[in-house]
Design brief:
mainly alpha, 5 helices, 68% helix, elongated, 127 residues, single chain, 2 domains
Length: 127
């Protein structure tokens, strides 16, 4: 891959990382820095209903799981940026063949070509 292409993908990876980190910050700000009463908008002195608390707890857990998944993508982006610096970006880590440009445009942190990725997913292995 040419230096110009590597620079393009590096910029794409940096932008994607910034978007994801911003989303993670928003999720954690919304979920971790508010009390259950704050998130419900309840400013009265009445007790908070258990069903509402359970619903809020579920939503908080769901959001935090999403943030965790997003952190995994950030780690994949960091690995891809390292491969860019090593000029090894764009090659499948399994078979060594070039990853299709269309795939890299859609998922710039892709580690594998589409064929190897399908094989791994069929066997239940993580990306």
């Amino acid at each position: 891959m040419s230096d110009k292409e590597l620079a393009k993908y590096k910029q794409l990876l940096i932008e994607r990382r910034a978007q994801i980190l911003s989303g993670i910050k928003h999720i954690t700000d919304d979920n971790l820095k508010k009390t259950l009463r704050d998130s419900s908008g309840d400013i009265s002195g009445y007790t908070y209903h258990m069903a509402d608390m359970a619903s809020d707890a579920y939503n908080q857990e769901l959001s935090l799981n999403l943030a965790s998944s997003e952190r995994e993508i950030v780690l994949s982006i960091e690995e891809a940026l390292k491969r860019v610096e090593e000029k090894a970006f764009g090659d499948c880590l399994v078979c060594g063949k070039p990853i299709a440009k269309q795939r890299l445009e859609a998922i710039p942190y892709a580690k594998n070509c589409i064929e190897c990725q399908k094989k791994q997913e069929e066997h239940g292995r993580p990306r």
